[in-house]
């Protein structure tokens, strides 16, 4: 009988991201769920073909992000005057004087970071979705994508715009443009992508494919 090293014992354990309870890693069949015995948080929920769907949804969301940035976002009509605005134009409106840091923050959180995160997910998972070995530095890229997740606020932006539209509707005629609907579709696609993503399964697959 071979002795078990502390490192191998740790490799056989996973911690709940909510309550830090430790669990032994077990095989979870696609379609089943492994939950934390203490708080009920889902730890693993593998699905057949999930990685291919995640890559396709991430690529779709990246295309929608490009459309949302450059196409007209809203059109305001009041007093016989009409004004169109895009997301890029809204960011650049704060780009003068002491408002420059605000422009950088808005541009980063609603455009740059979400778009970079979608590209990072596609880069890290696409080769494995095709049955290949992981790309170079795939683990580091996926870790970066996960670290940036709380700061990618495209969904918060579209919710804020929807609330603002309700308040402005009484003062002016507000017509959503193509970019608005692209952003709305982006939110739905992102929700679907996150619903298919089992992060622990992805890490295990990265490790296994890297060793093979």
UniProtKB/TrEMBL annotation:
- Any stretches that span the bilayer, and where are they? 54-74, 102-130, 151-172, 178-202
The answer on whether this UniProt entry bears the keyword Cytoplasm reads no
Quote the InterPro entries the UniProt record gives: PqiA-like
Q: Which keywords appear in this protein's UniProt record, sorted alphabetically?
A: Membrane, Transmembrane, Transmembrane helix
The name this protein goes by in its record = Paraquat-inducible protein A
- What is the species of this protein? Albidovulum salinarum
């Amino acid at each position: 009988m071979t002795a078990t090293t502390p490192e191998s014992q740790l490799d056989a354990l996973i911690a709940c991201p909510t309550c830090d309870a430790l669990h032994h890693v077990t095989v979870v069949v696609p379609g089943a769920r492994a939950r934390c015995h203490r708080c009920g948080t889902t730890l693993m929920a593998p699905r057949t073909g999930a990685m291919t769907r995640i890559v396709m949804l991430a690529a779709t969301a990246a295309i929608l992000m490009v459309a949302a940035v450059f196409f007209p976002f809203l059109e305001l009509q009041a007093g016989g005057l009409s004004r169109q605005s895009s997301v890029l134009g809204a960011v650049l409106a704060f780009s003068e004087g002491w408002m420059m840091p605000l422009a950088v923050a808005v541009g980063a959180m609603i455009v740059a970071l979400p778009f970079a995160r979608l590209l990072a997910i596609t880069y890290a998972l696409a080769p494995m979705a095709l049955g290949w070995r992981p790309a170079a530095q795939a683990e580091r890229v996926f870790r970066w994508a996960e670290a940036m997740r709380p700061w990618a606020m495209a969904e918060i932006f579209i919710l804020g715009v929807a609330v603002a539209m309700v308040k402005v509707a009484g003062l002016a005629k507000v017509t959503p443009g193509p970019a608005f609907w692209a952003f709305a579709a982006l939110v739905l696609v992102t929700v679907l992508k996150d619903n298919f993503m089992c992060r622990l399964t992805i890490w295990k697959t990265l490790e296994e494919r890297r060793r093979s």
